[in-house]
Specification:
By secondary structure, the protein is α+β, with helices and mostly antiparallel strands. The chain contains 24 helices and 16 strands. A hairpin with a 2-residue loop joins strand 15 and strand 16.
């Protein structure tokens, strides 16, 4: 547990690299992934750095590669992943890569331009073909006669719905059909009505419009279907022709010149049909050639992307190095784990050899006051639990890491709230599937965020399932065993009364029930009255135990920092405050379970008459704070009273005291509680005042001080007021937190009860209905209800929803109640230069 218990020792190293070998050395360090480089050129902008031209070239190649990927994606071509290792390309290969990408981009641009032109011409030919086919119908004598009449009426002001005076058609002056001019074209079908209205108003009714829908799709090579219509506009005079064409242009309508002679239209129609076939063949060949190029490019796209990614990341890293005055040496600074410095030296040596340089790279460890980053060596099992801790905050350098303890405590507290053996088995099987097939799932590179969340925490879910089974069988429910009774209860007349009196039901000789709670309790009327107090008290004990353990872990931090003032005036007062009140409460709970049973007995030398005098711990704790006087025994008139009990065959006489359950239940209880309360009260000012005045005393003598704010406070200006406020906040937070956090652990009881009740409701309202049916109908109902309703609701509500709820509550208990006792969480994450991490981000597997 050494490396995960505390973060690795880190060293700030200085590396001297020859310019010729720097690229290959950085590439080797990127493959190793154990060096976090510092930017030594923060005062420079991107354009002032040494390798700015190389970075620009990489950006340009990246732009071209993105364009190629967009074209491949547009054609719905699958891009396969590349799983083989790809070494970083040499700088001398940049020219070849640029040439390949440029050639491919230019070829795609030319093909796209040509295909766009061909498609446009093909659309125009199809539209012209439809215009010629429709115009023969639109140019017949009836339409031209209607157009001439309409235009003549408009010229005399008699057209439209407000015409004054209706005359006979034979009395009207008509224009000659041969005087009419016409314009034909194609327009979008949804614009036809607006087009007609606009022409009527702008031309004062002197333009006659007729349209016909195009039934075939004119854009054959596109997935988009657009409805179009052929229009013909009749008018008289060349001035209207100009106005009509402007209106057509405004509505994005395409105007086609159509011959007036029917024979010429027929000849043109035949020519267009021949051109359409030829052009369609050319377009198809062009698209096939484009698909062939994109298909070949898609096979290498991920490989090119990874090569370019490594190339660009290396030059970006080199731009962080400083250059000496001779321009022949690069100087780098990086954080390296102490245990891995040897590996870094070997990587630098390999880089020097591969580059062909005769001057080796030199690595020196530096003395520094900079705050080191935090690095833990993790594996696939511990990574999930470390992610839980890191979500709260990165551990301070060399601070005690909560992750090792979280491996046990997190699934345990989850199981206390979720504890169900059947649901735990389902969760365990699901996690086992993820663990068994993890290699195949990793190779599949699934990019779904929700799946990756579950897959990353597969070992967390595995332990949660195991602990759910264990806790359901051995912790909260494994307390009692009950006698074999006639009819599992007592007969009252002909009815079964299943209210279990514990004084006759518990069998000491039989011992605990083998697994879980005796099932007979599921039909007992007083089941909740029995389970709730037991679960509530167990939750309090578990919570205070975890908080006490968190305070013990703070001692590890104080000891590591060699801070005696924190040990004697923070840790010890915290232990006294927690122990004198809350640990004392837990001891009372355990003693009540052990000594104060339902049967009368002598406890601590005093007669305990029975369950009616069992101590009330809650009111007793209140009386402790109020220092209320109480009687020293449960009874009065011992030996002469009116009541009697039999213990070991001997009869004892007594009288009950008023509210005997509120009296003292062990000798000198009042004195002991006053001393405990006094110690707890005194510990608060000790925590509040001693450390701030001690820090001020050290500062007045010029001694180094720790402001207690984590990294970045070494050069902070000392302010006694700030130190006092900071310590006051922590003292108040601890004192009040002990109370609120203890109450917060009651969620263990509440969620355990909620899960049990939801399971009971689902059973009684769904599956039990089918179990009450007989015959074939009952068998069919059981199958349908179980598979269609009960199993689905169990998985989605009781396992997923309730499991998520228990997970979030366990997360809160660790972050707030447990880790706040010792964990700072203000450290800096170690982020080494690693090709593996960069590639996973590029592939969308990491953020």
């Amino acid at each position: 547990m050494g490396s995960i218990y505390r973060s690795e020792h880190m060293s700030l190293c200085q590396i001297f690299l020859q310019t010729d070998s720097a690229y290959q050395c950085v590439a080797e360090l990127g493959e190793l992934g154990l060096a976090q480089f510092l930017d030594l050129n923060e005062e420079m902008n991107s354009y002032q750095r040494k390798f700015v031209n190389e970075v620009r070239r990489c950006d340009e190649m990246d732009r071209k590669l993105r364009y190629i990927e967009d074209e491949i994606t547009k054609d719905l071509i699958h891009i396969p992943d590349y799983d083989e290792h790809i070494p970083a390309p040499q700088p001398k290969h940049m020219g070849e890569m640029e040439a390949n990408f440029e050639k491919l981009e230019e070829e795609l641009l030319q093909i796209n331009a040509n295909s766009a032109t061909l498609k446009k011409n093909h659309i125009q030919l199809l539209e012209m073909k439809n215009v010629l086919e429709k115009v023969n119908t639109l140019l017949d004598s009836n339409h031209k006669r209607e157009a001439a009449m309409s235009i003549s009426e408009a010229a005399r002001g008699e057209a439209g719905p407000f015409t004054l005076g209706v005359r006979n058609d034979f009395d009207k002056e008509r224009r000659d059909d041969t005087e009419l001019k016409f314009v034909t074209g194609v327009i979008n079908r949804n614009k036809v009505i607006a087009f007609e209205r606009f022409l009527w108003r702008m031309c004062r009714g002197k333009v006659f419009v007729r349209t016909a829908d195009i039934l075939e799709n004119t854009d054959v090579f596109s997935h988009k279907i657009e409805s179009k219509a052929v229009f013909i506009l009749f008018f008289s005079g060349e001035q209207l022709r100009t106005r009509v064409k402007k209106i057509c242009s405004g509505f994005h309508a395409t105007v086609y010149n159509t011959p007036e002679n029917a024979m010429e239209r027929g000849k043109l129609h035949q020519q267009i049909e021949a051109q359409v076939g030829d052009m369609q063949s050319v377009i198809q060949q062009t698209l096939d050639y484009r698909a062939k190029i994109l298909g070949a490019a898609s096979q290498n796209l991920r490989k090119w992307g990874i090569m370019l990614l490594k190339l660009k990341s290396i030059f970006h890293t080199l731009n962080m190095f400083s250059v000496d005055v001779t321009q022949k040496c690069l100087i780098a600074e990086c954080w390296v784990p102490n245990v891995d410095i040897g590996l870094v030296r070997e990587a630098l040596q390999q880089g020097t050899v591969h580059s062909g340089s005769s001057v080796p790279a030199i690595l020196n460890e530096m003395e520094t006051h900079k705050y080191p980053p935090t690095y833990f060596k993790l594996n696939k099992f511990t990574q999930g639990f470390q992610n839980i801790v890191d979500a709260y905050g990165i551990a301070n350098y060399r601070e005690v890491n909560p992750a090792p303890w979280t491996i046990i405590s997190f699934p345990f507290l989850f199981a206390v709230m979720f504890g169900d053996a059947g649901h735990g088995i389902i969760m365990l099987l699901a996690a086992l599937a993820l663990v068994v097939f993890e290699k195949k799932l990793i190779a599949a590179k699934i990019k779904d965020e929700i799946f990756n969340t579950f897959f990353g925490g597969r070992y967390v879910i595995l332990l949660m399932g195991i602990f759910a089974i264990y806790t359901a069988g051995r912790i909260l429910t494994n307390t009692t065993s009950w006698k074999k009774m006639d009819y599992q209860g007592y007969l009252i007349g002909n009815e079964l009364d299943l209210t279990f009196p514990p004084e006759i039901a518990f069998d000491h000789s039989y011992g605990p029930y083998p697994f879980g709670l005796d099932p007979v309790w599921n039909i007992a009327k007083n089941r909740l009255n029995f389970l709730n107090p037991m679960k509530m008290k167990t939750s309090i004990i578990l919570g205070i135990s975890q908080m006490a353990f968190g305070i013990m872990l703070s001692l590890m931090n104080y000891t590591h920092n060699r801070s005696l003032v924190d040990i004697f005036f923070v840790f010890i007062p915290q232990c006294l405050f927690l122990g004198c009140i809350f640990v004392y409460l837990c001891i009372q709970v355990i003693m009540k379970w052990i000594f104060f049973y339902v049967n009368p007995a002598f406890v601590f030398g005093h007669l305990y008459p029975g369950a009616n005098c069992a101590p009330s711990l809650l009111i007793g704790l209140i009386n402790m704070f109020m220092m209320k006087s109480r009687d020293p025994q449960f009874i009065i008139n011992y030996g002469t009273g009116s009541k009697n009990v039999t213990i070991d065959g001997k009869v004892y006489l007594y009288d009950d005291t008023d509210q005997c359950y509120l009296q003292q239940w062990y000798p000198q209880q009042g004195l002991v509680e006053k001393i405990l309360l006094l110690v707890a009260v005194i510990s608060i000012p000790v925590m509040l005042f001693v450390k701030p005045f001690y820090i001020r005393w050290r500062h007045s003598r010029g001694l180094p001080i720790d402001m207690g704010h984590g990294h970045g406070d070494d050069n902070a200006e000392f302010s006694f007021g700030d130190v006092m406020v900071y310590q006051a906040i922590h003292t108040i937070e601890f004192a009040l937190g002990c109370i609120s956090h203890t109450a917060s652990y009651l969620r263990l009881w509440a969620l355990s009860l909620a899960h049990a009740q939801l399971s009971d409701v689902l059973w009684s309202m769904v599956l039990s209905l089918a179990l009450k049916m007989n015959g074939w109908a009952g068998a069919a109902a059981i199958s349908i209800i179980f598979y269609c309703f009960f199993s689905v609701l169990s998985v989605f509500i009781l396992i997923l929803m309730e499991g998520l709820s228990a997970f979030l509550h366990a997360l809160r208990l660790h972050w707030v109640e447990f880790m706040s006792k010792f964990y700072g969480g203000t450290g800096i994450q170690f982020e080494p230069f690693s090709f593996t991490k960069i590639i996973r981000v590029y592939e969308g597997l990491d953020q």
